[in-house]
Amino acid sequence: MNIRYTGLQAYSIIEGYERVKAGMRLYRRVSDPDSYGFSNIASLYSAMPLHDSIHHDGWSGENPKGYTRDPEIHGRFESNYVDLIGTAESDVLKYIPRDARYLEDPWQAALNHSLDARNFVEDIYRLDLRGAFRNKDDQEAREMVYKRIAAGATFLRDLAYTAWIESAKPVPQVKPIDQPHNPENPRFNPAAGSAPAPPHQ
């Protein structure tokens, strides 16, 4: 487990979103956009339920249903089973809405995305308990993979679409007093050496 990211997934998503948005602003300004390479601002987000749970690497705490405590369950679902069933684009596309959606509040959308993923944690443990991730023909397990990949892809597309629209807007100016590193900032915390960032723009 990487303690750096524990409990911080939504913040990491928004940091990535803001980086993509900033990259898109630069992309709009270059004289030869093709030379910039859109892949330079690509970013991935996960809809993997175990990323949003204390049960990320084996069931934690009381376990009346006898779910595995084996940390390998994470890889069994996220990687091994995806490879076993030969997941293809065509398997996933049917679960992805056709049109991109503008996210009025990317932060709330990130929280909702994570909360939605967490609803499937016990389903993954239940499937694992009956050996579904060893059976490439298990339809329920296959659909779980396809739908979770589709959820992640849809969210990523909507974030990218939102970032593109927002990148066309002027960058709000931050007053010197509001700069996080300014000791005169009313919210400056000497222990941290900075103030919280200005309100989300």
What share of residues are in beta strands?
under 5%
Note the main sheet.
none
Question: In whole angstroms, how far apart are the ends?
Answer: 32 Å
* Fraction in helix: 40-55%
Radius of gyration, in Å, reads 20 Å
Number of strands: 0
Q: What structural class results from the helix and strand content?
A: mainly alpha
Envelope shape: flat
Residue-averaged pLDDT, rounded? Answer: 87
Question: Your description of this structure?
Answer:
With 201 residues, this protein is an all-alpha fold. 46% of the residues lie in helices and 0% in strands. It has helices at 9-29, 33-36, 73-84, 89-93, 106-118, 121-129, 139-167. The protein is flat, with a radius of gyration of 20 Å. It starts with 8 loop residues before the first helix and ends in a 34-residue tail after the last helix. The model is unreliable at 38-45 (pLDDT under 50).
Short description:
The chain is mainly α. The chain is 46% helix and 0% strand.
